[in-house]
Design goal:
The structure holds 3 protein chains of 3 kinds.
Chain A (H helix, E strand, L loop, with lengths): L3 E12 L2 E12 L3 E5 L6 H8 L9 E9 L2 E2 L5 H7 E4 L11 H5 L1 H4 L7 H14 L3 H4 L12 H13 L5 E5 L7 H14 L4 E5 L3 H7 L2 E6 L2 E7 H6 L4 H7 L5
Parallel strand pairs in A: 3-8, 3-9, 6-7, 7-8
Antiparallel strand pairs in A: 1-2, 1-4, 4-5, 9-10
Helix pairs in contact in A: 5-7, 7-8
Chain B lengths: L1 H24 L1 H16 L4 H5 L13 H31 L4 H15 L2 H16 L4 H26 L2 H9 L4 H12 L1 H15 L4 H4 L19 H9 L4 H35 L1
Chain C lengths: L20 H53 L2 H4 L3 E2 L4 E2 L2 H32 L4 H15 L2 H22 L9 H25 L3 H9 L4 H30 L2 H6 L10 H6 L5 H8 L6 H34 L1
Antiparallel strand pairs in C: 1-2
Helix pairs in contact in C: 1-12, 3-6, 3-8, 4-6, 5-6, 6-8, 7-8, 8-12, 11-12
Classes of the chains: A alpha/beta, B mainly alpha, C mainly alpha.
GO biological process, one term (chain A): phosphate ion transmembrane transport
Keywords (chain A): ATP-binding, Nucleotide-binding, Phosphate transport, Transport
GO molecular function (chain A): ATP binding; ATP hydrolysis activity; phosphate transmembrane transporter activity
Chain lengths: 252, 281, 325
């Protein structure tokens, strides 16, 4: 129980009258890699964005229920604090175009006005970039703009940016859907590394990816959490007919 | 049949000829005006012209230093007011496009864009000149600021709408508070676009005369007092152009040349900024 | 040993975590910043409300200040032909006529040019250096301050018109409605043109290609496809130009001759000196020595404001409707 990092209790999310996430209960352990899959429009991304309260930024979006982050309901906390504690990586790499690679990594501090000494910053930048497997490629061009990097490098830069904030949990919203196969495999390899220190929740519509990288998989369908189980178990012997249908490609 | 196609093609050619003629002939008045102002004005501009106040009628020499400083001070003060207000209102419009307030203030921006400048002059007369008890540079600046607002607001709004949402999400997901996201990420990323709106708005108001007639009026003497009357480039042109003295007409040609120079430079700067901005996207 | 870059670091990147400032600072930050965040959002709202207040304030100010005139002159203000500050009789008819006459004359002169520019840059030659050059030149026409057009008109155009009038055997004033309209026409051309260019470029090419495929000539495509498709949008452009023309002050003031009398024949009205609402305000506002006089002038401003707002609103409505569909 104390190994749990995130727990959703009767979590519901809406866009206006549109009920997109329905009564989700899920419990995620520390240092786990969780894949969240399901057909598009099934509420998986909305659920992910509910965890760090990004969901409510969309006009008309509301949520009910609890998301407990280390036992504390995020909806009782300051949203800014929640987002600082939880890292997030998006579909499309989105480094800040006005900042250098170096500044992009420490953006969480820089843009927040947190004073960090140059020495500390250097440490953070090197370690974060190393963790994101990008250090070797960019260490000589740290002061170039982040937008000069390739798509895969940009995405790893975004991962480094999230790591730099020392989050407990990192959320990935289809992180490789905009990347080429080589960049995708480099990002996937990263997940194994990151697992040592972080909990990862990865939304993906790519079943092979879910099977490759995750310990446990959650399957969403029509806003409901249909099944949540060991990845191997789920892909070999799903308990629910709908999961079976999805895995065998009856609908996508 | 053949013949008919022939006449149809000829008709099409004739029409094209007419279109091309009308489209290009309109550049003539502009070229004529520009050349005339340059021809009349450039000979007037010298060191004395730029550093002295106007000479009394009948006397040679004199300059427009009072109008230059006056225009500079009033445009500066107008910008100090209009730039922050305009940018913030523009941010609101682009960030909350569907609220009622955005609808109404957007409507007001449209209205403000079409309000005749003379009406702005009248209103500021009652808002500032009458309560203070006299014409002043402050009143002039407020009138100019009101004229600047719609241009700055619209360009800010449009620039920010061009920025991808992912940028804002990236910043927010790092736990950066909203105001810092706007000030440190969104505005720097859209800086060139916003700046082009500012330069364009300055280009528009630097030649505005009507709103100054009842607010700053004019001043024959050099003055830096913002609570008193102040001369400006367009106003000096108006006064001296409509005066009966040839020396003053010359002064007005010189002032027109300078004003034109400012306006053209600001327009070119705006063009370069928007071009750069488009490439970045 | 060669390792792929992915596996070089042993994973545990913050083994000896750097100074534990992150946790603490995050907390204190979020509490402190929340206040600023709320303030900033409020500030954005306040600025938008300010805009509404400016417009409402303009309207209220104009109504209050013109109230003495509205009550004392009544509806006669609109068609009264006498404007006599000494007798305190104020009829705005001459200025209404002057304004409408100059604006519509300018509009009629400008329309062929605006349309030609719109068609040329929208259809014949939408890209390339010549197109860019012409487009920038048209924009420059709008950039030149009104006062400079007025000044130039006074010294170059007025003598020319005077010569023309002498040849036509009309009283050779030089200044007047006709002269003001010519300059005004040049000034408003860019407004109609730039909107027209955008609209014509928005015509879906399948429509045009369909017509070409049927063997239509360019002119036929323009007349039968592009023109009907963009008609209401081009009309909106005309409205916006009209809004500009009605409120234009300085150039007109310098060229129209400024007389409050109404000429007897149309020829004299058209070629002789006149006055527009804006030019009367510009000329007489500073001289208005008693309340009713000033108030009557402000009523002109009120009429001008209301009319331009209505025209602009209709124009914008049409544009949003056209560009959205």
């Amino acid at each position: 129980m104390e190994n749990t990092i995130v727990r959703a209790e009767n979590y519901n999310a809406y866009f206006g009258d549109n009920h997109v996430v329905k009564d989700v209960n899920i419990s995620i352990n520390k240092n786990e890699v969780i894949a969240v899959m399901g057909p598009s429009g099934c509420g998986k991304t909305t659920f992910l964005r509910g965890i760090n309260r990004m969901h409510e930024l969309i006009p008309n979006a509301t949520a009910k229920g609890k998301i407990l982050l280390e036992g504390e309901n995020v909806y009782d906390m300051n949203a800014i604090y929640v987002r600082a504690k939880i890292g997030m990586v998006f579909q499309r790499p989105n480094p800040f175009p006005n900042l250098s690679i170096y500044d992009n990594v420490v953006a969480g501090y820089l843009l927040n006005g947190i004073k960090v000494s140059k020495a500390d910053k250097d440490v953070i930048v090197e370690r974060s970039l190393t963790s994101a497997a990008l250090w070797k490629e960019v260490k000589d061009s740290l002061h170039k703009k982040g937008t000069f990097l390739s798509g895969g490098q940009q995405q790893r830069l975004c991962i480094a940016r999230a790591i730099a904030m020392q989050p407990e949990l990192i959320l990935f919203d289809e992180p490789t859907s905009a990347l080429d196969p080589i960049s995708t495999s480099s990002v996937e390899a990263l997940f194994h590394e990151l697992k040592e220190n972080y909990t990862l929740i990865i939304v993906t519509h790519n079943m092979q990816q879910a099977a490759r990288v995750s310990d446990r998989t959650a399957f969403f369908y029509m806003g409901e959490l249909v099944e949540f189980d060991d990845t191997k178990q789920m892909f070999t012997a799903p308990a629910d007919q709908r999961t079976q249908n999805y895995i065998t490609g009856r609908f996508s | 049949m053949e013949a008919k196609i022939g006449t149809r093609n000829i008709k099409s050619m004739i029409f094209k000829g007419i279109i091309v003629f009308f489209a290009f002939v309109i550049t003539l008045p502009l070229i004529v005006v520009l050349l005339y102002i340059i021809k009349q004005g450039i000979t007037q501009v010298n060191w004395t012209f730029l550093t002295h106040v106007p000479a009394p009628p009948g006397e040679k020499g004199g300059g427009i230093i009072n109008a230059l400083t006056g225009s500079f001070i009033m445009v500066l003060m107008a910008s100090i007011v209009a730039v922050p207000v305009g940018i913030l209102a523009g941010i609101y419009l682009s960030e909350n496009p569907r609220t009622k307030l955005a609808y109404y203030s957007g409507l007001c921006v449209d209205i403000l864009q079409g309000v005749p400048s003379i009406v702005v002059g009248i209103v500021v007369y009652f808002w500032v000149v009458k309560p203070i008890g006299g014409f002043s540079a402050i009143a002039g600046s407020i009138a100019l600021a009101i004229m600047m607002l719609p241009i700055i607001i619209r360009s800010t709004e449009q620039t920010l709408k061009l920025l991808p949402d992912s940028l804002k999400e990236a910043a927010l997901s790092l736990g950066i508070p909203y105001h810092r996201v706007i000030l440190k990420v969104i505005i720097p990323c859209g800086f060139a676009g916003i700046l082009s709106g500012i330069t364009l708005s300055i280009a528009r108001i630097i030649g505005e005369t009507a709103p100054l007639l009842f607010t700053a009026l004019g001043n024959n003497y050099f003055s830096l007092k913002i609570t008193g009357q102040m001369e400006s480039l367009p106003h000096v042109i108006f006064t001296y152009a409509t005066s009966p003295y040839d020396d003053w007409h010359d002064l007005a040609w010189g002032a027109s040349f300078i004003l034109l120079l400012f306006v053209l430079t600001l327009n070119i700067v705006t063009k370069l900024l928007t071009r750069k901005w488009k490439i970045q996207l | 040993m060669i390792t792929s870059p992915v596996f070089t670091w042993a994973g545990n990147c913050f083994v000896n975590k750097p100074p534990n400032f992150v946790e603490n600072k995050r907390l204190e930050l979020s509490n402190g910043q929340l206040k600023w965040e709320t303030m900033f959002k409020l500030l954005l709202k306040v600025m938008s409300v300010l805009l509404v207040l400016i417009i409402v304030g303009v309207l209220i100010t104009l109504i209050i200040e013109s109230w003495p005139s509205i009550t004392s002159q009544g509806i006669k203000y609109i068609w009264g032909k006498v404007w006599d500050p000494v007798q305190n009789i104020y009829g705005a008819y001459p200025f209404l006529v002057g304004t409408l006459l100059t604006s519509f004359t300018a509009l009629i002169i400008s329309i062929p040019f605006s349309y030609a520019i719109a068609i040329y840059l929208g259809e014949y030659n939408p890209k390339g250096w010549l197109s860019d050059l012409l487009k920038n030149t048209i924009e420059l026409i709008a950039a030149v301050p009104s006062i400079i057009y007025g000044f130039w008109g006074l010294f170059v155009l007025v003598p020319l018109v005077r010569t023309l009038e002498m040849k036509l055997d009309i009283l050779p004033y030089g200044v007047g409605v006709f002269t003001a309209s010519i300059v005004l026409a040049v000034m408003i051309i860019p407004y109609g043109a730039s909107l027209g260019i955008t609209l014509i470029r928005m015509v879906p090419s399948p429509l045009k290609e369909g017509a070409y495929a049927l063997g239509a000539t360019r002119w036929e495509v323009i007349r039968n496809v592009i023109m009907p498709y963009t008609r209401s949008g081009l009309f909106a452009g005309v409205l916006l130009s009209l809004g500009r023309a009605l409120g234009e002050t300085m150039a007109v003031t310098m060229l129209i001759g400024n007389t409050t009398a109404v000429a007897d024949t149309f020829k004299n009205v058209f070629f002789g000196p006149g006055n527009t609402m804006a030019s009367v305000i510009a000329n007489e506002f500073a001289e208005a020595d008693h309340t009713l006089y000033l108030s009557a002038l402000i009523e002109l401003g009120l009429v001008l404001f209301v009319v331009t707002v209505i025209i602009n609103m209709i124009g914008k409505r049409i544009i949003t409707r056209v560009t959205k569909s």
